[in-house]
Amino acid sequence: MWCSVLKLLVVSGFFGSGKTTFIINAAKRLVAEYGLKVAIIVNDVGEIGIDDKIINSYGLKVKELFGGCVCCQLGEDMIKTLRLVDRRIKPDLAVLEPSGAADPSQILSVVSLAKNFELEMLPLIILVDATQLMLLLSEMPLTIRKVAFGEIVLINKVDAVSPEELSEVKKEVEKINRSAAIRPISARREEDIKSIIEMLKIKDGRVETKIRKN
Questions:
Q1: Most buried by CB count within 10 Å: which residue of 107, 146, 168, 179?
Q2: CB 152 within 8 A of CB 12
Q3: CATH class of the domain at 5-207
Q4: How many Å apart are CA 133 and CA 45, to the nearest integer?
Q5: From the CB of residue 66, how many other CB atoms can be counted at a distance below 10 Å?
Q6: Across the strands, what pairs with 8?
Q7: Closest CA to 40 of 54, 52, 51, 26
Q8: Rounded to whole angstroms, how far apart are CA atoms 190 and 12?
Q9: Are the beta carbons of 133 and 143 closer than 8 angstroms?
Q10: Cα separations in angstroms, 144 against 23, 147, 149
């Protein structure tokens, strides 16, 4: 029976929070500077607007992004998709971007129930939009649940708010999740991406994480 270890990073957040921008910019740096082979797993490969070369490979809808990086479509069975990515693409790191409506706790629950499949889980990242968080907190209760599950919470789009507004957003995040590492960033800035990669202990072509066995 096939048994593998897949290094997996889950990057969650609401629609428009900047997940795709963060993931693509991080993947570019991981490929170019760290020499890693990266597979990005999303709900629709067409949402990744880099080029239009789409191929079908081993039952996966795969889009080639740039050297050492591919984008794969998430199937209805998440674990089956992860297995296929692991077996057929053999990435050094798989990055899962779930739908903006997805509940991170459900994703972690599915992963924990996987049989004969080991994952090295990097810290769960949640992105929040500094320009929209206060509105979401008042109108969408799921926002609180999503933020609460993050091991790293990235307050994105800091360049679009005032220092006072950013301080207010950060205080709200701290109220919801006191144990998370909270980092204000702009997903477009290279120095911010680099600092998050360093937090994840990705260096010298290796992904150093604690193994979570199922």
A1: 146
A2: no
A3: alpha beta
A4: 27
A5: 14
A6: 94, 121
A7: 26
A8: 20
A9: yes
A10: 22, 5, 9
Round to whole Å and give the CA distance between 30 and 35. 6
Question: What residue ranges do the domains of the chain occupy?
Answer: 5-207
User: What is d(CA 212, CA 103) in angstroms, rounded to the nearest whole number?
Assistant: 20
One-letter identity of residue 102 = A
Q: Which regions of 99-179 does DSSP assign to beta strands (E)?
A: 118-121, 125-129, 152-156
Q: How far is CA 193 from the centre of its chain?
A: 13
Per-residue tens of pLDDT for the chain, all 214 residues: 344 578 899 999 888 899 999 999 999 999 999 899 999 998 766 667 655 566 676 677 887 887 888 888 887 788 888 988 998 889 999 999 887 777 777 888 887 777 777 778 899 999 999 999 988 888 887 778 889 989 999 999 999 999 999 999 999 999 999 999 999 999 999 999 999 999 888 655 556 544 333 2
- CA 109, CA 65: separation in Å to the nearest integer? 30
